[in-house]
Write a structure and sequence with these properties.
Helix 5 runs antiparallel to helix 9. This protein starts with a helix and ends with a helix. It has 2 domains: about 90 residues, 3-layer Sandwich (Rieske Iron-sulfur Protein); about 260 residues, Naphthalene 1,2-dioxygenase Alpha Subunit, Chain A, domain 1, CATH 3.90.380. With about 425 residues, it is of the alpha+beta class. It is built from 9 helices and 17 strands. The longest helix is centred in the last third of the chain and has 26 residues. Helices cover about 30% and strands about 25% of the residues.
């Protein structure tokens, strides 16, 4: 009886922590620094929901692969001989060795470096030396991982029965993303940052721009002030009305060109997401220092460089910015209670030539600066929430609405996981 009480005590404490969360306020400190909460986040959030991990254009040919780790689960994503994209546990079925240690590469077959068990690109075991007569290769295929391809954005799920509402996101977001043709892009740059902060601080920071004016001078060059939240005041009415007219006129023009633009907001769904195409300020072409295009070759079917910026957020771990000339994608992966991987990729047309059509420094300057600034903010927040003086503070109803929606989603999904076990 005593052992059972000890075994179930951490779960009960987590349930109590979830139950007393105060709506409209930030989370209590254990959500940001407790090993028990972190372990629950991996188990109930990252291993039971659809996690954005890569783009299809990273693996353009059969045998091309990328790897990723979600918690302690190594995953291999590759393109097979039929040009289909598959995901597997990156674990040999012999004695468990990791098959591919590199972040990306290309293979003919998958050969385990330990004892050379060999798998084809469909994950079937085709060679295992020194095994007894009658050993059935077909019983030792690689274990598959659920994968969904949203017009080139790749999501994986480790659950035995993944959330089915991912199909709602694929259906509704497909027309928004399709014109940018991710399959016909290439990764022009990738930068990984390890932030000394909990993954939820990273996501919360992303879901608001309350901090943008004072911290992101490069990013706000291309943003209308009315696009990222403000406290309503009578003296701002004229400016807001003007911005709303710009949005209305821009949406009508873009829709006529085959670019869906209207807001979709489903952040409370199990596979939560939100999108909207928004006008960019000044030249209005891209998120660059002069707001002009960073790449001369426009993406996919897009003919007009002035096509705004399509923003797309997914629960629990990604955000994306699609412009006429390039795409910036972000994935967030928790490493420890107080360290988080933030991976940023810049995509351009696959035929664009570096130094001719685009300059990497210009392409990446805005988000390189912004990522560094956000890293500092997250790390300072982690120092603060670790303090005995920290208490949950109130969110602004005007500028932190999406933070509240993220937190509500997280608490709901964590609570559901704790109840289901």
């Amino acid at each position: 009886m005593q052992e059972s009480a000890i075994r179930f005590q951490p779960v009960q404490k987590l349930r109590e922590l979830v139950a007393r969360r105060q709506p409209g306020y930030s989370l209590e400190a254990p959500f940001y620094n407790s090993q028990e909460v972190f372990d629950a986040d991996i188990k109930y959030i990252f291993q039971r929901h659809w996690i954005y991990v890569a783009v299809s254009s990273e693996i353009p040919e059969p045998g091309d692969y990328v790897t990723v780790e979600i918690g302690k689960e190594p995953i291999l994503i590759l393109r097979d001989d039929d040009m289909q994209i598959k995901a597997f546990h990156n674990v040999c079925r012999h004695r468990g060795s990791r098959l591919c240690a590199d972040e990306k590469g290309s293979v003919g077959n998958l050969v385990c470096p330990y004892h050379q068990w060999t798998y084809n690109l469909a994950g079937k075991l085709i060679f295992a030396d020194h095994m007894p007569e009658g050993f059935d290769l077909s019983h030792h295929s690689l274990k598959p991982v659920h994968l969904k391809n949203l017009q080139g954005l790749l999501f994986v799920c480790l659950a035995d029965e993944p959330p089915a509402d991912i199909d709602v996101m694929l259906e509704q977001m497909g027309p928004y993303i399709a014109p940018h043709q991710i399959e016909n892009t290439k990764v022009a740059a990738q930068i990984d940052i390890i932030e000394a902060g909990n993954w939820k601080l990273t996501m919360e920071n992303n879901r608001e721009c309350y901090h943008c004016t004072g911290n992101h001078p490069e990013l706000t060059i291309s943003l209308y002030a009315y696009s990222y939240g403000f406290a309503p005041k009578a003296e701002l009415a004229a400016g807001l009305a003007n911005y709303e007219n710009i949005v209305k006129d821009s949406h009508a023009r873009w829709e006529a060109c085959g670019l869906p633009s209207a807001e979709i907001e489903k952040l409370s769904d199990v596979s939560g997401f939100r999108t909207m195409r928004m006008p960019l300020d000044r030249k209005g072409q891209s998120q660059t220092m002069d707001t002009g295009s960073a790449c001369k070759k426009l993406l996919g079917d897009i003919k007009d460089a002035d096509s705004g910026g399509l923003s797309f957020w997914t629960q629990p771990n990604s955000w994306h910015h699609f412009m006429a000339d390039h795409i910036v994608t972000f994935t967030v992966l928790p490493l420890t209670p107080d360290t988080t991987l933030v991976r940023t990729k810049w995509l351009v047309h696959k035929d664009a030539v570096e130094g001719v059509d685009y300059d990497v420094a210009n392409l990446t300057r805005v988000w390189n600066a912004t990522n560094g600034q956000d890293r500092h903010l997250v790390e300072e927040s982690q120092v603060g929430v670790n303090s005995t003086a920290y208490r949950p503070g109130p969110y602004s109803p005007y500028t932190e609405e999406l933070v509240e929606k993220f937190t509500n989603w997280y608490i709901g999904r964590l609570g559901a996981g704790l109840e289901q076990g």
